[in-house]
Amino acid sequence: MAPVSIRLDGVSKRFDHTVKGEVYAVRDVSLAVAEGELLTLLGPSGCGKSTTLRMIAGFEEPDAGTILIGGKDVTHVLPNRRGIGFVFQNYALFPHLSVFENVAYALRVQRRDEASIARAVEGVLELVGLTHYGRQQSHQLSGGEQQRVALARAVVFEPQVLLFDEPLSNLDAKLRVEMRGQIRALQKRIGTTTVYVTHDQEEAMAISDRIAVMDKGSVVQEGTAQELYYRPRTEFVANFIGRTNLVDGHVVSAGDVEIEGVRVAFSSGLAAGERARLVVRPEMIELRAAAVCDGPHGRIVQRTFLGEKTDYVVALGAATLQVAASDQYRRPLFEIDQPVGVYFHADGIHVLR
Amino acid sequence: MATASSASWRRVASDPALLGAIVVLWLMLGLFVLFPMAHLLERAFVDEGRLSFEPLLSSLADPSHQAAFINSLILAASVGVLGTALGFLFALTAVRAGLSRHWLTLLDAAALLPLVSPPFTTSISIIFSFGPKGLITHDLLGLTNVSAYGFWSTTLAETLTYFPIAYLTLRPILAAIDPNLEEMAFSLGGSRWRIFRTVTLPLCVPGFANAFLLLFAASLADFATPLILAGNAFPVLPTQAYLQITGLFDFKGGAVLSLILLVPAAAVFLLQRYWVGRRTYVTVTGKVGQRSRSRAIAPWAGAALIVACVAVAALIVYFYALLVVASLVTAFGANNSFTWHHYHVIFTEGLPAIRDTLIIAAIGMPLGGLYGVLVGYLIARRNFPGRRLMELAAMINYALPGTIVGIAYLIAFNDPPVALTGGALIIIACYVFRYSPTGIRATVALLQQIDRSIEEASSSLGAGSGETFRRVTLPLIAPAFFAGLGVVFIRSMTAISATIFLVSISWTLITVRILENMTEMALGPAAAFSVFVIVVVFVVVAGLSAVLARLRTPAAGAAARSFLGG
Amino acid sequence: MKLLRGVALVLAGWLAAAAAHAADLNVYTIWPENYARPMFQEFEKQTGIKVNFLRFSSGEALTRVIAEKNNPRIDVLFGGPVETFAAGIKEGIFEPYKSPSFAKLPARFKHADGQWTAIADDPLVFMTNAAFLKTNNLKPPASWDDLLNPAYKNSLQMADARTSGTAVTRIFSVLEVNDRNEDKAFAYLKKLRPNVQVYTKSGGGGTLPTGLGQAAGGIFFIVDALETKAKGYDVVISFPKEGIGTSAEAIALIKGAKNPEAGKKLIDFATSAAMQSKLSEFKVNFVPANPDVKTDPALAEVLKGAKIFPIDDEYAGANRKRIIDRWVKEVLPAQ
Fold first, then answer.
1. Which member of A140, B78, B498, C222 has the lowest number of beta carbons within 10 Å of its beta carbon?
2. Do C324 and C193 share a domain, yes or no?
3. In chain B, what residues touch C199 (CB-CB under 8 Å)?
């Protein structure tokens, strides 16, 4: 089946809140998911990502806007006519059915013949690595196994679209990493257009073609993981994706910015005398011994050795900076309270405004 | 919220199975609930074509009616509290005390006896046992000046008669609480009592509310027990309404009294909605924990529970032993020689009543079970305009005293356009619409514990609302379905207050024959009929349990395996 | 699917069908089934007309007939005290009919227009538990005042005036022995109240408790009292010296009956000597209304010397509702 696109145009959803009255869970959201793409909706809880996903699935109906799947308006189409495979946070396996019957469910609904059902179910169980689990009851399985059954159940009928609602949040960390790899591999293999919801930015970056960050019911930024990481449009995105330093810079001239007294050759595009809000990722700051450095010195406040890198917290003027040093194998670590020279790599600085 | 309601209209209209179910249910509720009620209201408030509240006002001003009203509330509240407590005691014992299956079955059987009995049987046994010459008060305890009539004996009889409803409501809920949850609290170092208080009890709150409501309403509407036991010092409204109609030929006064009774019934209902509606406890999800035997009850507490249950069960069994004795002796208390004569009488002269009752119960049973889960599912799970109204309409016939429902049916269906009196259909309809709320409530309570995502999963996998209901919801709420079906069957075999007006020359009922036998002083045949009814109900209930045990519904269903006992 | 639908349709038709026995005679009987059944069997034997019947207490039977007024389900209302029939006349539910025996009957055994005809007479009696009398060293009550003895405190059972014809007859008996002085009669009834354990729904409701000793005694119709005795319960029947009332048992044709001819035949039969002579044979202890039939010797023996008076139909009918209301208001709540 050729992959299809998903489009949301100005979709809104209100709820009646007993105290606050009418509140927007989702406000004027427009999104486009390309054929075969995996888009992740990322945001903190309550940002509207799950509601958006549930509207794509048809579990909720938007109060405004339209939803198109494969170019067809499905805004008011019931979930069972949308051809979506949905994987729930709590797996939502049918407790009264065996693993085989759980997976076969959609095919039974389609009244497929017994032989083709058996073939398809066994095929997809093999795909998720549960070849001999067909006769088991769902409550006999571990959490990871249950989630794989849920996945198998969602893909077995070759849906147009796959939707995942925080599918890994009930699993332990190691299993989470393993499962997200499997999900990504499976999605690539079957090529189904997918929307994935999570609050875990690392998971989002690991699994997605593109990410849409949501906050308070709206999409604040869309893009690849790199775009969001290096070119966040708002402080919210900058803070939510990865660790970050948000510092104020003083524009000295067209080609120079001063950060807490440290002069950096960087063209901000702002006029001299203006203040710039800058995003500086921890790995884009370099520390050097104070002796080899003129200008103002920073002071080490905290040090965490992590093996592949060392995290420092450095006080520089009024700012407290997070610094990730990955070249520590070449020289001794800095000590607490040691004065250090702070260098900003100009090509890693991003201006918010 | 014009947009929201028009959206939900549109959604309903695009879902043919849902739309069809709603339309059919409303048609039936209209015909068998609203239409007779309209006739009743007309009878109560329309006088020669003019609206008149004079009968209502004069009824309210009558001090004996005021006393009856207050007595009804006291009785219903007492029965609600005591019955819920007793039901919870039995449910807790059944689910947590670690009884073997064998003993559990026996306990179930004793607990269900009162529920499967024809009316009056507990009352008659109480009169034999507690009067001035009563077997317990006089022969056993040597007391002579004891009255078997009044508040306490009525409360005792109604509590014993109705507590199985609370048991049936609470047991699946307790069973659905994952023992792992209690285990977890236990492992966190909570004392058992603390866990019980802070984990188990709060999770049962919706069940308590349901059970209390059901018992309160049942007691409020019961006229048979107070008629025999309340005596004259403790008049209650349903009895007064019944006497008003059958004694004083005052339809209007009886209708007015019964409508007064609707006020507390509606109040309790709304309170329950408001209270339970705010607390949803999702413990059954698609993620199923490993089942383990609970250590959350201390061994001595388990033993105490068992002793308490056995004591209550023994009292019940004693009452019914009296009944069996009465059916096998020539004249109870006077000529105690053994005879099969009474059974011979019921299987010859009483045969038409037995045949008619069985046919009616057999037809009403599946209809009532299906109706119960359908309505329960729609009001708990589907959002459609008029949902609350449907819930209310479905409760009306249950909340009203049976006498009044019977009279309303008689008035409404005696003449064209819908002349149904004289047939079996009217009796079946009366049972289905009057006794399914137990199934509805059980369905709602169970659904409150089943996560919606399971149904959403089905719908995303291509199943329409009808198919989802059939393939997923129905198997998961099978315990509620069988509870509802069982109650309708049991009531079809044992109820009397409404149907005493609906039996006809072509279709009569065992219970009506029992009442007649009682008033004819033919205690022997009355007891024999009662024993027969109890045996039939037990056989059918045992059959239902066997079917339920075969249904492979591990999560919700495992709890239901010996759900109906027997 | 088609077959299933067909079956369902047929089934629905059958279940919804009203009484379809066109040729049969349909009857509500107020007489207990064990009294009525042999009478109907005899009628079937004589006429070949099958009788379908259903037993109700008088209040319930009347309520049903009134409710079914526009579409009557039965042809004849059989048995039950005359005061029930008097209430029915007001509702216009009866069709006047005079059977061949009508002329023969004394005036108090028939409605002047033939709305109802009496088939038997049923006097009230005092019935007491023999063991109770012995323990308390009492003689069987022989006067209304004997029942006021504190020994009976909270131990008599008698019927509730709201449901039972027995109770109405009893209250009018008290009125008669007090020369219809209502205040005097009600003073007596109120004095009796503390001795009453419970007022039962039906007239015979207290007989079994009396037989078992749960109650000391009460005031009942003689049929019920003799039936209790016949079952083997040790009870004593006595009469007050001031006299006690009796109520006629009646039969009536229903207006709009589907099968009036058969109904008339049943009335002819029930009012005739043919049926009433069977009462004695089947040990049904009613006193025959038809003057051609002799009272059963054993029953006559019980009644010998008893002072029994009929309740004045006209007086009772005119005052019934008011008297019952007063009883409900004044006697019932008094303790």
1. A140
2. yes
3. 232
- CATH fold for domain A6-240: Rossmann fold (3.40.50)
Q: Is C320 exposed, middle or buried (0-12, 13-18, 19+ CB in 10 A)?
A: middle
Location of each CATH 2.40.50.140 domain in chain A: 245-351
List CB contacts (< 8 A) between B449 and chain A. Answer: none
Other beta carbons within 10 angstroms of residue A118's beta carbon come to 15
Cβ neighbors of A119 (< 8 A, separation 6 or more) are: none
Chain center to CA of C256: 24
Per-residue model confidence as pLDDT tens digits over B166-180:
888 788 777 777 666
Task: Decide if C28 contacts C74 (C-beta within 8 A).
Answer: yes
Q: Determine, for residues C214 and B133 on separate chains, whether the beta-carbon distance falls below 8 Å.
A: yes
- CA separation (Å) from C89 to B211, B415, C85, C86? 47, 22, 6, 5
Residues C81, C197, single domain; the answer is no
Q: Which residue has 């023996």 as its token pair?
A: C301
Residue A128 sits at the vertex; the CA angle it makes with A126 and A133, to the nearest 5 degrees, is 65
Shared-domain flag, residues C102 and C161: no
C328 and B520 within 8 Å at the Cβ level: the answer is no
Backbone φ and ψ for B282, nearest 5 degrees, come out as -95, 105
Query: Does residue C117 sit within a domain?
Result: yes
- ipTM value: 0.83
Q: Give me the architecture of the B15-42+57-282+298-334+341-559 domain, per CATH.
A: Orthogonal Bundle (1.10)
How many whole angstroms from its chain centre is CA A168? 13
Domain assignment present for residue C2? The answer is: no
Question: Which residues form the domain of C145?
Answer: 123-246+307-331
Asked if residue C252 and residue C106 are part of one domain, the reply reads: yes
**Residue spans per domain, chain B:** 15-42+57-282+298-334+341-559
Do B and A make contact, counting contact as 3+ CB pairs within 8 angstroms?
A: yes
Higher pLDDT: B275 or C16? It is B275
- CB contact, 8 Å: A91 with chain B? yes
Q: Which positions in chain C touch B414 (Cβ < 8 Å)? A: 67-68, 70-71
Of C17, C66, C332, the CB nearest to B249: C66
**What are the tens digits of pLDDT across the range B196-247?**
777 777 777 878 888 888 888 888 878 788 887 877 778 888 888 877 777 6
Instruction: Sort strands A297-305 and A262-265 into parallel, antiparallel or unpaired.
Output: unpaired
In angstroms, the separation between the Cα of residue B249 and the nearest Cα of chain C is: 6
Q: Do B128 and C228 touch (CB under 8 A)?
A: no
For chains C and A, tell me whether 3 or more CB atom pairs sit within 8 A of each other: no
Compute the average pLDDT of residues A19-34: 87
Average pLDDT, chain B: 79
pLDDT digits (tens, 9 = 90+) for A223-243: 999 999 988 999 999 989 888
Q: How confident is residue B556, by pLDDT bands cut at 50, 70 and 90?
A: very low
Domain assignment present for C1: no
Measured between CB atoms, does C41 come within 8 Å of chain B? no
Chain A, 133-192: which have a CB under 8 Å from a chain B CB? 137-139, 143, 146, 150, 153-154, 157, 163, 170
**pTM given for the model:** 0.75
Find the closest chain A residue to B470 by CA distance. Answer: A109
- Are the C-beta atoms of residues B472 and B555 closer than 8 Å to each other? no
Contacts of A105 in chain B (CB under 8 A): 458, 461, 463, 471
**Residue C177, min C-alpha distance to chain B (Å):** 25
Q: Which fold has domain A245-351?
A: OB fold (Dihydrolipoamide Acetyltransferase, E2P) (2.40.50)
Distance CA B286, CA A102 (A): 11
pLDDT in tens, B8-67: 677 777 778 888 889 999 999 999 999 998 988 888 888 777 778 877 887 788 877 888
The verdict on a CB contact (< 8 Å) between B1 and A154 is no
Whole-number Å distance between alpha carbons of A181 and A185? 6
